[in-house]
Design brief:
The complex is a heterotrimer of chains A (306), B (359) and C (357). Helix content of chain A is 73%, strand content 0%. With 306 residues, chain A is mainly α. In chain B, helix 1 (13-37) runs antiparallel to helix 14 (323-345) and helix 12 crosses helix 13. Chain B: GO terms for molecular function: transmembrane transporter activity.
Chain lengths: 306, 359, 357
Amino acid sequence: MGIFESILLTIATAATPLLIAAIGELVVERSGVLNLGVEGMMVMGAVCGFAGASLAGSPWIGLLAGVAAGAVFSQLFAVLTLSIATNQVATGLSLTLLGLGLSGMIGEPFVGEAGEKLPSLFIPGLSELPLVGRLVFGQDPIFYLSVILALVTAWFLFRTRAGLTLRSIGDNPASAHALGIAVIRYRYLAVLFGGACAGLAGAHLSLVYTPQWVENMTAGRGWIALALVVFASWRPARVAAGAYLFGGVTIGQLHAQALGFGIPSQLLSALPYLATVVVLVMMSRNKRLMMVNTPASLGRPFVPER
Amino acid sequence: MRIELEKRASPSQAYALLSPVIALALTLVAGAILFAALGKDPAHALYVLFIGPLTEIWSLHELAVKAAPLIMIGVGLSVCYRCNNWNIGAEGQLVIGAITGSIIPVLFNDWHSPLVLPLMLVMGMIGGALYAAIPAFLKAQTNTNEILTSLMLVYVAQLFLDWMVRGPWRDPEGFNFPVTRQFQDEAILPELLDSGRANLGIVFAILAAFAIWFMMRYTLKGFEIKVIGASERAGRFAGFSRKGMIWFSMMLSGALAGLAGICEVSGVINKLQPEISPGYGFTAIIVAFLGRLNPLGVIVAGLVLGLTYLGGEGAQIELNISDKVVRVFQGMLLFFVLACDTLSIYRVRLSLARAAREA
Amino acid sequence: MKKMIISLAVALAASTAAVSAQAADKTKACFVYIGPKTDGGWTQAHDVGRQYVEKELGDKVETQYVENVPEGPDAARAIERLARSGCSIVFTTSFGYMDPTLQVAKKFPKVKFEHATGFKTAPNVTTYNSRFYEGRYIIGQIAAKMSKTGVAGYIASVPIPEVVMGINAFEQGAKSVNPNFKMKVVWVNTWHDAGKEADAAKALIDQGVDILTQHTDSAAPMQIAEERGIHAFGQAFDQIKAGPKAQLTAIMDTWGPYYVKRIKAVMDGTWKGGESSWDGLKDGILTMAPYTNMPDDVKKMAEDTEAKIKSGELHPFTGPINKQDGSAWLKAGEKADDGTLLGMNFYVEGVDDKLPK
């Protein structure tokens, strides 16, 4: 395996959880809901994924447990913001705080346990192709899921009737409601999907990325996923590009250090965050682009009038 | 069964007053269940968490030390959130305020003058305000989402502090450990009483809360904030500047976060080090909401939350409860407050009959 | 309802007071931790030490701890709380607790305090530390023997003297075996972020290192080493479970015997303040995990070195040693003094990295 290929593999692993969580949040935001609880749902997915794998003895069960945990946890947010119309920003933040605490509690018996890694796919022949072999045919199953998720989400949002409905709800829930669309139900489903994705992303961390449970192991990745959604101006393809760009900067700075460039390591560690700010600004400057894609009702509670 | 909301004609005053009480009661009940589930005596656990810290003088002092930065920052954030500017980067503004405020004691360690401390406080506020001006500028001029930029800047600020104390500002006599030199006596925020550690910070915090309460209630600026917060369109018709409000609210909250930063460094730590805040900037977000975005409410909220931290430590020692339990507890408290708050705006109905029609 | 809770609580408080009076004849030893006690690294090693104390001293001792205490303003309060709760001796186990420990110690002259890894003492405060660098010298030698590419990767946390000293010791050990041995250093600026540590491990491996060592807390680099089929050294803990084929050995922090010794000193009244203790391999405060996954001759070399360090025959920093820029540091035969080591802020010759300033 050449250095180029293995760097790409590392970047893919770093980008996968970001991509999955961001795709989930993208759908949520397209429906007009802003869930800042991604970090919390992700860390719940990570702990339940690990716990599930450890208790059931199978990382596949762990994967399911992680997805389920994210989905269930997201419903706490959904009930509050959708059914009783609480402030979405505050509720999302609380979800993150609660998730960080709760996951620490659940995870206590599992700290220090060596986990079982989700096996990678390996197709004899294809996986040994030069350059792209391992990249395309020899990765962990969640990597493929992330690609499928991005593609299906893009197709769903822009090629199906339900996707159109979801976007129209995000733009104008009142008129969607007037047309007889069950706004709240759509939003519930979107939040559920977002939670499941965040849970999956968390499970990737504790089952593939570093198969172990460590308190706060998401270490801010949920927030990066949130930034990516805006960065991508709510387009799935751009979310994917952004996730890989961010993964690239993260891994690239480590390589720059190992090569001995002699730049302060704090500056290099700050690079991914600065890069996110810069790109956010560049994206946001383009008003037309933002206007077309931004869900107009993002973050505003909607209460159906009777 | 489904939940239905019906908007009240005007927010219920009774509920506005009652809802925090209901929320607290619900949290106590849920907490009792949680502790019982963990095999601890719920009444004793709640006593250790909420009452134990209030029974000793020294721990009352500690409560003031802990609550001061939370109140200071929380009050600033409450203004921000009232007009829909979601500054969640107060932690970064705190760090930068601590750095700019420390310029004098670090670089001019031999300057002994009563001017040192006031200058430090002012410089800390300026630093925090300027750092908050970055997301404000980006939001006002380029329409960039301030939630994300302010958050990203937190990480940048922390790494900058780390670099400063390991590099340019490292104490030349400190065996190369990552700390700056100890501040001179004139740079240290005086303690209030001999009986404990509480310092002037809590006084600043309460003054700030009252000043902002006054502003919100009796000045045109306060009115402007409320109008823009309620409806941006209404604000525009009234001739209020949306951009001006972004600048004002972000920089105000930044300045208060910066003040909290320099007060922590000057009053408690007495030097700069890589870690100066246990996440006060983030906890203050909870404080702001717990106080229902009301400056006086924030004082109470800051004290309550500070109490849970102190009690949490007590619980670790006395009951062997891990500190995660306390964080879960705080999360629950916030959820109940949010949920109960809705009751003052909406009437909630559970209906079984109408489910069929809409489905 | 509220009234009921309060009255209940008061009754309970009275009953707990009775309990603590009963336990007064026990010596109470308390610990302040920077991280969760199950962090799989630094803090857990201290907590294992605490459990060792309970096992060794049985019902003559009572232990207590507070975990996750940040190094900021909260530290002094946590320490004071322990001092007030009747602790005879308080161990504060992170560098950043130095000044808070001294502050509280001033207020409680009767309570004894021991601060790990610091350099300030007082009449009732001592410091204690472990000569981790002795272990790092040994693993440097092993690395130079075992590496095929001749390059090792070093995942470093934050550039404090402790970490710099470790890098230098590793380099000294490696150079003693293979003068051309190279080392790549990556600073992750955190003690504990499994993902970042894993990323750093992968980046280093991709750049051609075939031996990993770390001065961070999680077992993630060991897992990556296992997965990629290279070797690595465990940190603070025996990480053989994470890398059954990868781990060569581990530098294990073994605080237990030291804690027992000091608590016994408190019990029989021989404890003295103002001292600094810096024990090493010979005192058992650090131990090497079994040497595994290596040929017998390498194992023999490692064991010999360990024995020589224990007997005092070998000091990892014995001249001639130049600084990285080629200027002389130690003359031939000269041994580094403890003061320089504890404040180390320069690399020795041969380290292929620029020290973050």
